[in-house]
């Protein structure tokens, strides 16, 4: 939300997500325009302002991991929670690589 127009009686906003009905999926269109990602999360993660694209790359990597889990039908809360903890410990990219190489870390102890 960018602001509110009292004359028109409506909010002004930047559309960050767009639904593509032909593919039945949502498309992220907010690269470069997210206050939260750029001014809060990037700062929290120590990402330099000159490299703000990294925060969007990280978001896309996490989305890719979630899409892979959906494709593999990993829906159980405890299994997903186990993977979230593992992603925190070893990194999202490494976890995704393990899964793409055929490992099933949600099945191990």
Task: Please describe the topology of this protein.
Layout: E1 3-5, E2 10-12, E3 17-20, E4 25-28, H1 35-44, H2 53-71, H3 77-90, H4 92-100
Helix pairs in contact: 2-4, 3-4
Structural account:
48% of the residues lie in helices and 13% in strands. With 109 residues, it is α+β, with helices and mostly antiparallel strands. Strands 1-2 form a two-stranded antiparallel ribbon. It is globular.
Describe, in short, the structure shown.
It contains 4 helices and 4 strands; from the N terminus they run E-E-E-E-H-H-H-H. The protein has one domain.
Pick out its properties.
109 residues; alpha+beta; two-stranded antiparallel ribbon; 4 helices; 4 strands; 48% helix; 13% strand
How many helical stretches?
4
Q: Evaluate the radius of gyration.
A: 18 Å
Strand content: 5-15%
**Sheet/helix structural class:** alpha+beta
Average pLDDT level: 91
Assembly classification: single chain
State the separation between the terminal residues, measured CA to CA: 44 Å
Element-level helix/strand string: EEEEHHHH
Strand order of the largest sheet: 1-2
- Bin the helical content: 40-55%
Largest sheet: 2 strands, antiparallel
Overall geometry comes to globular
Q: Please indicate the count of domains.
A: 1
Low-confidence parts lasting 5 or more residues at pLDDT below 50? none
Number of separate strands: 4
């Amino acid at each position: 939300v960018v602001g509110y127009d009292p004359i028109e009686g409506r909010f002004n906003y930047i559309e960050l997500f767009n639904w593509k009905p032909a593919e039945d999926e949502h498309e992220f269109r907010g690269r470069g325009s997210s206050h939260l990602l750029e001014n809060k999360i990037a700062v929290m993660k120590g990402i330099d302002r000159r490299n703000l694209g990294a925060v969007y790359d990280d978001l896309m990597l996490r989305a890719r991991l979630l899409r892979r889990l959906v494709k593999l039908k990993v829906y159980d809360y405890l299994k997903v929670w186990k993977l979230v903890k593992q992603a925190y410990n070893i990194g999202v990219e490494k976890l995704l690589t393990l899964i793409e190489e055929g490992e099933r870390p949600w099945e191990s102890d």
